[in-house]
Here is the input.
Amino acid sequence: MAKNPATPASRARAQPKAPAGATASAGAAPATPPVRPGYYRGEQYRTEDSVGFLMKQAVEMLSRALDARMAEYSLTDAQWRPLVLLWRAESCADSLTAAQIARSVGCDAGATTRMLDRLEDKGLLRRARSADDRRVQQLELTGPGRKVASIVPYVIADVLNAHLADLSRSDVEQLRDLLLRVLATGRRDAQAAVAAAAGGKSA
Here is the structure.
């Protein structure tokens, strides 16, 4: 025997109950967040005019150009950075560990280990036990690694000069100073946010 079709009332009863307050808030528009006084206004914001968007585009363009040039030396973006860090450390009679490299390049431990493994397979670096603490592995450049690392700054300088060719020396210096100020302000803002969050938890 065919079952009777469900009535609207029975279908309504079959629906799971929504959490209390969900119906009231579902259709409500979120409150407009406050915007600190400054150059940008939320109602007038356009992505193509955003300094942040333009900086991101510039960084991505530089990264692509550097990748293309570093490929001439069989290096990727992830590989030339630790080579330069180790080269600079050696010039100061210092050494680095994998953990220090990871912090400097902003990678997690697993990704850093794999990247260092590839550089070791290429014969560009080696791992050595620390004389002070045998549990710690120090990273050292090999002879070929030093030769490749010494070339990297010249490649970077050439790529940067190509992208900054339409700017005067004073323009470049001003751009650098402005970026340093943006970074300093951003760090202060981040530190203030962390302090405020910590104060809220302890209250």
Notes: The CA atoms of residues 197 and 203 lie 10 Å apart.
